[in-house]
Design a protein that fits this description.
The chain contains no helices and seven strands. The chain has about 110 residues and is mainly beta. Strands 1, 2, 3, 4, 5, 6 and 7 form a seven-stranded antiparallel β-sheet that branches.
């Protein structure tokens, strides 16, 4: 068995340090899932994120971030079609069949050692 999962991706991190422990980070990104094998939807994506990396010490960093993600060719943010059992008569993807954007808020904690 073999398969091809072609993708093209580009990301840029732009950072501005406004104090010794704080940065503002802007992250534009482009992602083309040509067969839909990586994301489940054959489409191109563009997003922009803004984050605030903050260092509590030289070992502990937190990075909250808000991202606007947009699908350029197809509805890609329709929910999980696998969440409904095949025996049931429901369609999760019918909730938003053509939803082309999502707002995502996330945060990570990094321990440097």
């Amino acid at each position: 068995m073999s398969c091809t999962a072609r993708i093209v991706a580009a990301v840029v991190h732009l950072n501005y340090k406004f104090s010794p422990l704080d940065n503002i980070s802007i992250r534009p990104e482009f992602y083309d899932d040509m067969q839909g094998q990586r994301t489940g939807v054959k489409t191109r994506y563009a997003d922009i994120g803004i984050g605030w990396p903050h260092w509590f010490s030289s070992q502990i960093e937190v990075r909250p971030e808000v991202v606007y993600d947009r699908s350029l060719d197809a509805g890609a943010f329709n929910g999980n079609p696998d969440a409904c059992p095949a025996s049931a008569n429901c369609k999760v993807s019918a909730i938003a069949p053509d939803k082309i954007f999502a707002w995502i808020a996330s945060m990570d904690l990094t321990l440097h050692f």
